From TrEMBL:
Name of this chain's protein: Coenzyme A biosynthesis bifunctional protein CoaBC
UniProt family annotation: In the N-terminal section; belongs to the HFCD (homo-oligomeric flavin containing Cys decarboxylase) superfamily.
Binding-site residues for CTP, renumbered to this chain: D99, K109, P126, D127, I128, L129, F147, K161, K165
Region (Phosphopantothenate--cysteine ligase) location: 11-232
Domain of life of the native organism: Bacteria
Positions spanned in the full protein: 249 to 480 of 509
Species of origin: Bifidobacterium margollesii
Function (record text): Catalyzes two sequential steps in the biosynthesis of coenzyme A. In the first step cysteine is conjugated to 4'-phosphopantothenate to form 4-phosphopantothenoylcysteine. In the second step the latter compound is decarboxylated to form 4'-phosphopantotheine.
DNA/pantothenate metabolism flavoprotein C-terminal domain boundaries: 6-222
Amino acid sequence: GATAPLAGLNVLITAGPTQEPLDPIRYLTNHSTGKMGYALAEAARDMGATVTLVSGPVALDAPAGVRIDRVTTAQEMFEAVSSHFPEADLTVMAAAVGDFRPVNAASEKIKKHGRTTLELELTANPDILAWAGSRKRTDGSQVICGFAMETQHLIENAAKKLLEKHCDMLVANNLREPGAGFATDTNVVTILTPTDEQTADIEQLSRMPKRRLAGEILNRLNSLRAQVPQTV
Ligand code: C5P
């Protein structure tokens, strides 16, 4: 019905940053607060979905009525997503996943030892969104939305990501735009959808609260899902 447009659907959301340990005391991370991902989880719940939220470390309260799976590293997020993804009808990856992690997390605190420089060797983390894009069901019943935050060439980079990671939708965030980005309660985004293998449609949305934007994203994503006949 109109009030429960996602009734009967499983929605999987990723949110927040990841933390990649350097030693028992320190880690590499980013400025993600989890606000957009948590807003998506709450909106999906209110639209009638069964929601699983895979969350990196954030200061937000767990939304009521949502299954939450808390993780720390990108590798743990990948493992959580791979276990929940097969049953997800709609997946939205709003997490800011660390692209790299230290090759070796030191087992003891890294000491200064009078050094003036320190080299860290990093290795690539799995790209969770690309993995999901390559594994989604081929009948169109499973749709995936990614996010892209860029400081330059936003639309070109976002279109490239949409197509390369086989997303059904990509939400592009300009970090430099007032009322957009990490710690704000509003966002200004452009929504990209693929038209064919090479090109994308783009739709610019006005600045709005993250909670309302979440509903807009979920409604659009759901409309891209193929209606597969159910066998009774
Ligand atoms: O390529 P980039 O990191 O900018 O892509 C951002 C999108 O990809 C986001 O939806 C993010 O959640 C997802 N991502 C991911 N795993 C990674 C890196 C990004 O799922 N290792």
